[in-house]
Amino acid sequence: MTRSPLTLAADPALADAMREVRAMLAACMQCGTCSASCPNAQSMDMTPRRMWRLVLLGRADTVFSSGAFWMCSNCYACTLRCPRGLPLTSAMNALKRIAGASGHPALARHGAFYRAFLDNVRRRGRVRETEMMMRYFGAAGPREALRFTPLGLRMLRRGKVRLELGAGRWDTALAPLFESAARLEGKEARP
Amino acid sequence: MNTATATRYAYYPGCSLTGTASEYDASVRLVLERLGVELAEIPGWTCCGASAAPAVSALLALALPARNLALAERDLPGCDVLAPCSACYLNLLTARQEARRDHRLHARVQEALEGEHLPWANAAPVRHLLDVLANDIGPARIAAAAQRPLAGLVLAPYYGCQTLRPYAAFDDPEHPTSMDAVLRAAGAEVLEWDKGARCCGASLSTTRRQAALPRIAEILRAAAGADAVVTVCPMCQMNLEAFQRQAGLPGPVAVLYLSQVLGLAMGLDPGQVQLGRNLAVPPGFLARLREVPPAPGEVVQATGTG
Ligand code: SF4
Ligand code: SF4
Hints:
The complex is a heterodimer.
Chain A: H1 12-25, H2 33-37, H3 48-56, H4 60-66, H5 77-81, H6 88-101, H7 105-108, H8 112-124, H9 129-140, H10 142-157, H11 175-184
Helix pairs in contact in A: 1-6, 8-9, 9-10
Chain B: E1 8-11, H1 15-18, H2 22-34, E2 38-41, H3 53-56, H4 58-75, E3 80-83, H5 86-101, H6 103-114, E4 126-128, H7 129-145, E5 154-157, H8 178-185, E6 189-190, H9 204-207, H10 209-222, E7 228-231, H11 234-242, E8 254-257, H12 258-265, H13 283-291, H14 296-305
Parallel strand pairs in B: 1-2, 1-3, 3-4, 5-6, 5-7, 7-8
Helix pairs in contact in B: 2-12, 4-5, 4-6, 5-6, 7-8
Bound molecules: iron/sulfur cluster (2 copies).
C-alpha cells in the first residue's frame, strides 16, 4: 500500500469527520461477512473488512489513498448481512462525502460525477441527463467524453437523448432547499 | 399496511422516466390505467438526489426525497406514493424510515423544508411499482387483464438491489419472488435463476466502467435460458442493456421493463409500450412475440365490446 503524499491525518476537519465514521463501525468484529457479500470486492484494492479495521485504527491516510469506497455501488448486501447490524453502506457514503469535501483534488477526483449530478439537481430541479453528462465531461476531461460517445450515438438513434436548452420550468424549485441545507450543514450557500 | 384497496396513488415518476427511460413511464401509465388504478402525478415534484446526494450531503440525501413526500402529503392527502424507479423508491423510503426512527433527524429535515413553508408530517407510505402490482392489484386482476398471455415466453425476473434492500419492505431481500406471480399472471414462464437480486453495478457503469462490466456479464450470462430479462428500475435497465458488447456478451439480450411485458400481455402493441426505445431487442425476440397465439378474449376485444 503506497502512502498518500498528502498529510491527511493532520487535517483537523478530516479527523473530525472520521470520528463520526469510527462511531458507526465501533462494534465491528472483523468477521469478513461484508467482504464476502460485496459484489465489488474484487475491484477494490482492499476489502471492506480491512478498510473498517483501518478506519477504527485511525489510519485515514491509508483509507483515503486506497479509495476502495468509491467502488461501492450502494447494493446494501453488506448492510443486510453484517451480524452486528452496522450501517456499512452509509459508512461507504460518508467516506465518499469526506473525500469529496476534503479539498484535496486527488481525493475528490472520483466524486466528480456525483458533484456534477447534484449541481444539475440544484440548478434544474429535475435532472437534465444530457446537460448533466456534458458538465461531467467538462470536469472529467475529453477521454471520458470519448468513452461515452458510442453509447451516446446509440441512444440518440433511439430517441433517448433529449437536448433541452435554456431555462426550464423547475429551475428555481430547489433553490430554497439547497440554501437551507447548506446553512444547516454549516456551509456557505453557493451562488 | 392498510392499502390493499387503494386505487389512487401519488405518482413520483422521477427524472429518468422523463428522459432516457420515458418508455418505462409511458408503459406504467398505460398498464395501470388498464388495471383500473389512478395515478395522480405529484404536482411540482423534484429530483430525489439519486445516488449522488448521499455521496455529497447527508442532509440533502434525506431532504430532497422528503420534499416530494411533503408535496404528496399536502396535495394528494391519503395517497400512497408510488415510484417505478428503484433508486427513487429507496431514497423516498429511506427518508420516511429514517425520520420515523430518529425524531431529531425528522426535525432537521423539517427545518430544511421550512424555507419554503412546506410541512412534513411523514404520513404518506412509499411503495414500489412492483409492490403495488404484486400485492395491491395482485396476479388475479393482472391475469384477467391479460388478453394476450405470453405463453411460451421465458422471462428472467431481475429485481436489482434498491427494490429489496436494506428495508425488505415487501419481499425477501436475498431470494425475492414477488415478480414470479406477476409474470405468470401475464402468461409467461419464469426462469429459475439466482441472479435476480445481484447488483448490476449501479452508477459504477459511469464512474468505474471496468468494475461494472463483470457484474453485468455475470447477470446476463445466467439469463441465457430466457427470452428476456425483466427489470423494474431504469438504472438496472440501462446497465444491463447498454454495455452488453463491452461486457463480452456474444449477442444482444432483450431487457424489458415489467410494465412493457404486462402491456404486451394486455394486447398493447410493441409501439405502444415503446419497444423501439430499448437498446437491445434481438430480432428473434419480436418474432417470438408474434408466435404468441392470440387468446380467445382478443377476438371479443377486436369487435369492440371491450
Ligand atoms: S460484516 Fe460487520 S462485523 Fe463483520 S467485518 Fe463486516 S462490518 Fe465487521
Ligand atoms: S453496499 Fe457497497 S460495500 Fe456493501 S456490499 Fe454493496 S457494494 Fe459492497
